[in-house]
Amino acid sequence: MEAFSYSVSHDLSAPLRHINGYVELLLIRFYDFLPDKARHYLNNIADSVSQMATLIDDLLQFSRTGLQEMLFADLNMNIIVQEVLVPIKQENHERNIEWRIATLPHVYGDHAMLRLVWTNLLSNAVKFTRTRGKTIIEINVIDENDAFIFSIRDNGVGFDMQYAQKLFGVFQRLHTNDEFEGTGIGLANVHRIILKHGGHIWAEAEPDKGATFNFSLPKNKED
Amino acid sequence: MIELRTILLAEDNPKDIELTLEAMAENNLANQVVVVKDGVEALEYLRREGKYKLRKAGNPCVILLDIKMPRMDGIEALRNIRSDDALKIIPVVILTSSREKKDLIDTYELGVNAYVIKPISFLQFIEAVKHTGAFWAVINELPTDGRS
Questions:
Q1: B121, A14: Cβ pair inside 8 Å?
Q2: C-alpha to C-alpha distance for A216 and A196, rounded to whole angstroms
Q3: A14 touches chain B (CB under 8 A)
Q4: Is B4 on the interface with A (CB under 8 A)?
Q5: Please, are residues A117 and A215 in contact by the beta-carbon 8 Å criterion?
Q6: What is the ipTM of this complex?
Q7: What CATH class is the domain B7-139?
Q8: Which of A50, A158, A199, B51 makes an SS bond possible with A194, Cβ 3.0 to 4.6 Å?
Q9: Which residue in B has a C-alpha nearest to residue A14's C-alpha?
Q10: What digits encode the pLDDT tens for the residues A171-223?
Q11: Which helix (H) or strand (E) covers residue B35, if one does?
């Protein structure tokens, strides 16, 4: 698997980089000489390339999550969420999003991995509310005896609960790329990370009425 | 007029070579770029051996080194450069598509000066080349320069 991911990062991304390089060179150097159709074709090639690049990155990330050793530490979830929100807010500054974020506890976990969990879940919440005039995203936590249960609730497009099982599978998507872009790896990765922490993840939703993603993290028993 | 310093680019893939030179051209980086196809040829150039026997003496201002190359890869080339008294002070920048931690650690342990991952986006690559080129080929002072 090490060798595989190494080979993926080297051997698959190089030709992709080349395609992208030449497409962008064509656009930079010869834009004015190209008929509209040709520009359109080049833009589509560039789109597909960037989609494939994301796919390779996500796959690499996913295979790394499987291998990576966990570095457990005491983590302040408030700080992680705030850190993760900075780029998300930046990328979506033109959107009308109300963030309702509860005070979150400290947990015992791997910093980089839990960051990835929040990045994925919050980016998803932002993504699947894109069609809404006003977006509301709520982050809450419930203190159970031996675990914390975190939830991310949005008022987005939601999904049909009959597909809830499929959500966390690799390459599983509930939307077409035209509706919402994605590789179908994000939630599989989140699932893997939460399991590695000894927790669970599940989702509740209704089409057009938003979705709630919940994950539990066991408390550190030594505390 | 200050003589522009030479950049040594060690890269085996012809498309990567072309795209790197194009990215330099986009940035109006006018330094002479000598291209070698692997570690063996890089060392021949640096040591003025083989087909480089007759080249003018002097080290490049920076070596842009790919990792995965035939015959001798970038890491081996770097090891040779750092253990050669005549070459060890030359700045070496790894220019690679590898994000592997192992490559990062290995090259830093061998005393690499910088490690640049080639972005997939060519526009970002142009930016990366701009900064790398401007710093190592223009801004950075070398002990052997004698230009001040």
A1: no
A2: 12
A3: yes
A4: no
A5: yes
A6: 0.82
A7: alpha beta
A8: A199
A9: B97
A10: 778 887 778 888 788 899 999 999 999 999 999 998 989 999 999 999 876 55
A11: strand B33-36
